[in-house]
Amino acid sequence: MNYQSTFWGILLVLIGGLLLMRELFDWFDFERFFWPVLFIVGGALLIFKDKLKKIS
């Protein structure tokens, strides 16, 4: 397991989650949700990339 990728992945997910929590109760706006969702998805891919390689 690559712990450096896991660290950066968790960091991106946390940053994206914090950004998304600020806007959670407002009306949906794509521009407002783009960066937080991008950080969360990028972080999740960094965390689970080894498992995704094993599946395929």
From TrEMBL:
InterPro entries from the UniProt entry: LiaI-LiaF-like_TM1 (IPR043726)
Record-annotated LiaI-LiaF-like transmembrane region domain positions: 7-47
TM region(s), chain numbering: 7-27, 33-48
Pfam families: LiaI-LiaF-like_TM1
Keywords linked to the UniProt accession: Membrane, Transmembrane, Transmembrane helix
Protein name: LiaI-LiaF-like transmembrane region domain-containing protein
Organism listed in the record: Runella slithyformis (strain ATCC 29530 / DSM 19594 / LMG 11500 / NCIMB 11436 / LSU 4)
